[in-house]
């Protein structure tokens, strides 16, 4: 009789142990349901992703050349205005030396005939454009007296944008890199260019090391003016027709579950009965807002954006820390 009772007790004990193990397994499988709450449901979609870096820039001449008179004297005539295109060797102004200016002034007092005679006999000096370019500054007008240190006009061969890039972003910048340009003066217009030069010496701006990056626009339009402020966006990577999910949908793989090989991250989806289950994924590029999924999901799959539940805080007056000690005020 005792043997029968003992055998029955052993069987009951085994059933209890088995039930306990089963409940633990169920608890483990539903951990994500207990630990997370659903924010919203979304579908995996296909689209394009651009990884970008932004910086502030300024429009400036690539080569800025000041044309100064070879001798001191008076500017007799300026043949160009701002915005004019000029060729190398083109005459941009005529000027008289101090002696010629004094002689012509004295001859003018003697009459038109004397003035014309001396004007023909004593020719003015031409000022020539040293390169092809555009007049960006007309600094003097006819009749003004200038020294050899005073620029008469300023020529730029082409306008570029110089952007200041933080040293932490410099590794993402490369020559010939595609760049988007928006001028503050024309915020609705988009211009495109390529990186032409990256300086080798840094500048200290607001206690931050930055490097100058020159961007040559694909097309110089009349909207460009030297000194304009620009927002520059460097296109680091372009990914086309890829699987995308909002970055907030991507979580680390749960630590209590065995990690699939090569999978560091997970998205969550509902299974039968409404339980949340992690789906192992491998991610690619991200722009911060959207993340590329390399494998683990398919287009159109419905997944859940989740967040960790706030654990209920004990209000038991007999708890080890006393009543309502860790209570937080609800956020408005």
From TrEMBL:
Name the InterPro entries for this protein: BSH_CzcB-like (IPR058647), UPF0194_transport (IPR050465)
Q: Where in the cell is it found?
A: Cell envelope
Keywords annotated in UniProt: Coiled coil
Report the GO terms under cellular component: cell envelope
CzcB-like barrel-sandwich hybrid domain spans which residues? 65-157
Q: What is its main location?
A: other
> What is the protein named?
CzcB-like barrel-sandwich hybrid domain-containing protein
